[in-house]
């Protein structure tokens, strides 16, 4: 799962209002250098997990003992250069990505948050880096990209919940030639994990996907995707979203998501036994995972209710196809509530302080409860999670766009639904500073 959830409601609103412009983007190209952009996002992250004196068995394998706490701090740099496209019928350009993570605070007894690569001595590495580039081609409003690139498709989405994001390698194509319709597809053969530097660190052999988003009206959008991940599974995904303005300061939104997943080939699945090294095991997946959420906004306040259910054989499986490939309402900070047979419900409240004269300041709290989970530990597992978040984004001055975020999560399960760990208190302090150089 990930900290940064892709909001399908936000994407749908954007799709419905923009209607995907018909004018040819390539005709408006100013040139390779003239349209170039270069940005560096700096992220400082303090990450603490307290297992409440009920440590995960085998967590600290190097020291051959259980660990009741993991706590580390790091600094990450994400540099992205995106050239413009050369002029002409077919434009050519390049993207270059550079990523570096630095350890600020850790220790042999506190390592294991997933921020850094781990060494054989049980300590986190002091620094690590990765990067790559892609060549891109544009014809009219269609872009073909070959190489290292971030992905956001609901069946293949790179994760960005630690210091540095996952970085997949492959081919993608995106087209907005038809008004109201966005089509995309991809062929990816490897991906670098968030806390690793080698290309096969997620165990991905090959993923192929195709799909799109269509704005039926400015208020209604739908999407449909298909993906096949070699030796793991095939997936179908569909979404339907409706947003409606009730008045100048009131609106209502409904969002429905469904995944249909079935094992393919060897039927492998990723088992994060020690939370750091993904291990492959054979499982049988033949399930549907769906969620429905409704959000009512009035002034500064947004009230959200959501329900989610998994039916069929196995959990909703993801991870090898990107840690962000879980566009379900109850996939939250700590748990996804995605176990076999599990049903879950969420209540959430958001407060935007701009209405009260403090733009950039917001608060969020939610509670999710799940039951009926069928796992190796229980046939009727129960779990719950409470999340609290405060965020402030600087609005002006030298530190404009600097965001400061505090996230706290409390997770409990007497049945050990989540990786066998019944109790987790998690705290993240995140500072992001995006700097646009070009």
TrEMBL record:
Gene3D superfamilies: Porin
Organism encoding this protein: Pseudomonas trivialis
Record protein name field: Imipenem/basic amino acid-specific outer membrane pore
One annotated Gene Ontology cellular component of this protein: membrane
GO molecular function, one term: porin activity
Signal peptide: 1-23
Family: Belongs to the outer membrane porin (Opr) (TC 1.B.25) family.
InterPro entries in UniProt: OM_porin_bac, Porin_dom_sf
Keywords on record: Signal, Transport
């Amino acid at each position: 799962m990930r900290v940064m959830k892709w909001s399908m409601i936000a994407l749908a609103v954007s799709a419905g209002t923009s209607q995907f412009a018909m004018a040819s983007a390539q005709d408006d190209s100013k040139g390779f250098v003239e349209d170039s952009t270069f940005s560096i996002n700096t992220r400082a992250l303090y990450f603490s997990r307290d297992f409440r004196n009920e440590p995960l068995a085998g967590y600290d394998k190097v020291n051959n003992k259980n660990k009741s706490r993991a706590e580390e701090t790091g600094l990450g740099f994400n540099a992205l250069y995106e050239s413009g496209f050369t002029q002409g019928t077919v434009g050519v350009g390049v993207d270059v990505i550079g990523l570096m993570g630095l350890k600020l605070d850790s220790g042999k007894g506190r390592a294991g948050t997933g921020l850094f690569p781990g060494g054989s001595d049980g300590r986190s590495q002091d620094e690590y880096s990765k990067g790559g580039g892609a060549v891109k081609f544009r014809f009219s409003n269609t872009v073909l990209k070959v190489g290292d690139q971030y992905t956001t498709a609901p069946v293949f989405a790179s994760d960005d919940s630690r210091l540095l994001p996952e970085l997949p390698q492959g081919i993608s194509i995106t087209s907005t030639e038809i008004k109201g319709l966005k089509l995309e597809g991809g062929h990816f053969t490897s991906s670098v994990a968030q806390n690793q530097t080698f290309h096969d660190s997620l165990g991905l052999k090959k993923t192929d996907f195709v799909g799109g988003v269509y704005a039926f009206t400015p208020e209604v959008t739908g999407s449909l995707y298909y993906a096949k991940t070699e030796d793991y599974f095939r997936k179908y995904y569909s979404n339907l979203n409706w947003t409606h303005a009730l008045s100048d300061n009131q609106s209502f939104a409904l969002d429905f998501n469904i995944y249909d997943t079935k094992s393919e080939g060897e039927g492998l699945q990723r088992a994060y036994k020690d939370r750091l090294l993904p291990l492959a095991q054979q499982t049988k997946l033949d399930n549907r995972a769906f969620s429905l959420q409704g959000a009512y906004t009035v002034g500064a306040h947004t009230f959200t209710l959501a329900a989610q259910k998994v039916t069929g054989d196995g959990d909703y499986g993801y991870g090898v196809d990107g840690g962000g490939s879980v566009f379900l309402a109850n996939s939250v900070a700590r748990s996804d509530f995605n176990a076999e047979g599990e049903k879950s419900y969420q209540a959430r409240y958001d407060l935007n302080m701009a209405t009260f004269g403090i733009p950039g300041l917001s608060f969020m709290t939610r509670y999710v409860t799940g039951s009926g989970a069928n796992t190796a530990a229980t046939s009727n597992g129960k779990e719950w999670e409470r999340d609290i978040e405060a965020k402030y984004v600087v609005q002006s001055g030298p530190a404009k766009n600097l965001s400061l975020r505090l996230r706290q999560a409390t997770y409990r399960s007497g049945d050990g639904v989540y990786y066998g760990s019944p109790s987790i208190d998690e705290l993240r302090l995140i500072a992001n500073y995006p700097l646009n150089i070009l």
